[in-house]
Amino acid sequence: MHLKPSQFSIPSLFLPLFLLYTSIQGTLATDASLEFLDPTLPPALPSQTPKCSVLVLHQDFAGTVSGSSPVTTNYTHPGDCPAPWTRVVLELSFSVSGVHVQKDRVAAVWIDGAEILRTSTPFTINPGAFWKVHKDITRYTSLLRRLSGGRGTVSMMLENSDSDSDSDSNPPGVLTADVSLHFYRGALSDKSIYTAHPSVKGLYREPADLVVPISQEKASNGSSFWFQIGGNSDMPTASVVIPTNAYRAVLEIFASYHADDEFWYANPLQSEYPQGGLREGRANGGLRQLYATIDGKFVGGHIPFAVIYPGSINPYLWSPVAAIGAFDMPTYDLEVTPFLGLLVDGQPHEIGLGVKHSQSYWLLTANLHLWVDRWTDAVEAMLVDYRAPPLRVNPHAEWRDQEGSSEIDAEGLLRFIGWVSSSKGNVTTMVRQKVTFKSQVVVQNRGTVRQVEVVNKEAMTVGAHRGKNQVVGRLQLFMDAPLQVQMSIVNAAGGAVLQNTRLYHQLEEVLNLNDNMAVSTSILTDRQDAEGTVLMHDGMPVWGGGSTKSSYKYRDENTCYLRTVDAAGGAVKNDVTSPSCSLVSTA
Ligand SMILES: *[C@@H]1O[C@H](CO)[C@@H](O)[C@H](O)[C@H]1NC(C)=O
Ligand SMILES: *[C@@H]1O[C@H](CO)[C@@H](O)[C@H](O)[C@H]1NC(C)=O
Ligand SMILES: *[C@@H]1O[C@H](CO)[C@@H](O)[C@H](O)[C@H]1NC(C)=O
Fold it and tell me: What is the top-level taxon of the source organism (predicted)?
């Protein structure tokens, strides 16, 4: 993170200690500019030149905290770059200017009110920091077609303050964002490499014909499209009318967590737990479930992947390499085709979004991806099997003063079956999901040593067949997202806390796909091991360091892509990419 001592506004009470540490450690690196990166997916940008690239939005964000509206622009598409496109990539470039601390923020991009990217920004005090986010947005082709037809807007939101509200005397930091779209036509030279998560590849062979935003209509008082979820029982809804000839439907949920739930994944279970190094202070356990409803009926959910924000745990661990998913936050797909029978009557229906076990607050939106049958005016559809018991949750906690442990086990099994009769025949879709979850928090040594361990596994099957047993397609997705954090703290003078952390987390997705008898398998393994030290004061890091090893591996029948990045002391030490995994020895 290149926290340069000279650039900090140091709380005066803290100064003597700060100087002490500075003199012990000497000065940190003082690069004038620093690129932050998220070494996750294979490069989304194909090596060839796009047919056209459009700079959609250029904006300086400063002093836009709370209540600001998203920035919106009208879009103009070049005439010589018509649909269809083989791939469309969103590029978001950021740079930081000004001299003040930039805390990590959440930001998003929308097309006509449908969210297409949720991202978080690095925690930085480096005025020369910059970074880029690339996302394959081909799955939003229907929105892009409307946009290119001259009827659409692109919006972006970033709540950026100029650091703490008490710092009137400091000039504001500015985050400058440029949003571009790159459109590709023709065969892509490197098309065997998928640039979206395997789950997206599996469910989205062909992009949907329609993408309907499930979001807050832009409120007149200037809030954004996000629904704000204040807690467990909060479930905002949006009213939608869907075409009567829709034959397939997938609901994609975007989520980020804030305030009391910013560290939900490390939460112990107990109501009066003393404040500690993780700054949680709220203790309702580390289990959350994102879910959706149709007219009040639960239609599926996911335990979210714990994206660690760039300012979380120890900001030095995420400088300059972001935590898994921080720059392109994962979205969660629910296959809701079995429920089309509830939706295709041409009437308005209420789609609800919520987070079970949550505290204030989460920001959610969703996109309803719909495939429509152009040869039919109205499909017939019916839900025939519905098994959706709530997660079986088993909590256990034992605390004595500042020491103890808590554990939450959860298991769930869902099954939905429904048929849709269209010009493609009478196709029955079966969705089955099994989740296994465990969160364990152990605190020892009078609250100064803590361990967090999370097991988060999901097995999901979506099968479609016609008639008795003619298989149309089948996908199986296995997700495994473990997290381990070990932390010890030492209380220092002036209320400061010196914190040592080791962390390991991973996102693995294994996809088996049988699509019209063509069978394929792909495996994605994204892993990070990090350790470091940070001195925190008033919730702000004032000194520290860390090292992070990242390894991203994607393998299918044709490809093996591996990228390993080692970062230490605020700089990348080693960054090796291999298009065939054998060239690099795995970490
Ligand atoms: C905007 O209006 C909504 C609905 O009336 C309200 O819940 C929200 O707090 C308001 N936001 C602001 C920033 O005033
Ligand atoms: C976008 O287009 C609308 C309708 O044509 C117009 O009212 C609005 O002023 C335009 N906005 C910008 C930023 O040009
Ligand atoms: C579609 O198939 C299901 C199960 O095979 C059957 O119960 C239903 O009546 C069929 N629907 C139509 C419109 O044929």
Answer: Eukaryota
May I ask the CATH class of domain 31-196?
mainly beta
Beta carbons of 231 and 259 less than 8 angstroms apart: no
pLDDT at res. 282: 63
Determine the pLDDT at residue 482: 98
Please state, in angstroms and rounded to a whole number, the distance separating the CA atoms of residues 559 and 195: 12
Cα of 388 vs centre of ligand 2, distance in Å, is: 46
Chain segment 342-377, per-residue pLDDT in tens: 999 999 999 999 999 999 899 999 999 999 999 999
Other residues' Cβ atoms within 10 Å of the Cβ of residue 473: 18
Q: Give this prediction's pTM.
A: 0.89
Below-70 pLDDT ranges, the chain: 1-32, 41-44, 63-68, 99-101, 125-126, 160-172, 189-204, 218-223, 271-282, 582-587
Give the per-residue SS3 of 309-347.
Answer: CCCCCCHHHHCCECCCCCCCCCCEEEECHHHHHHCCCCC
Of 332, 138, 340, 333, give the one whose Cα is nearest residue 248.
340
C-alpha 290/C-alpha 181 separation (Å) is 30
State pLDDT tens for residues 64-99: 665 567 888 999 999 999 999 988 999 999 988 876
d(CA 190, CA 296): 44
| Pocket (CB within 6 angstroms of ligand 3) | 380, 419, 421, 426, 428
- Pairwise CA distance, residues 366 & 344, whole Å: 19
Burial 30-58 (b: 16+ CB within 10 A, else e): eeeebebbbbbbbebbbeeebbbbbebbe
Chain CA centroid to CA 114, Å: 16
Cα–Cα distance for residue pair 175/156, rounded to 1 Å: 13
Q: Hey, where are the domains in the chain?
A: 31-196
Helix (H) or strand (E) holding 522, with range, is strand 518-537
User: CB within 8 A of 575, min separation 6: which ones?
Assistant: 39, 563, 564, 565, 566
From CA 307, how far away is CA 118, in angstroms rounded? 12
Q: Which atom of ligand 2 is nearest to the CA of 74?
A: 1
The preferred substitution site among 66, 216, 223 for testing ligand 1, maximizing ligand atoms within 8 Å of CB, is 223
3-class secondary structure, 103 = coil
Q: Ligand 2 atom 14: the closest Cα is on which residue?
A: 74
Spatial distance between the Cα atoms of 270 and 287, rounded to a whole number of angstroms: 13
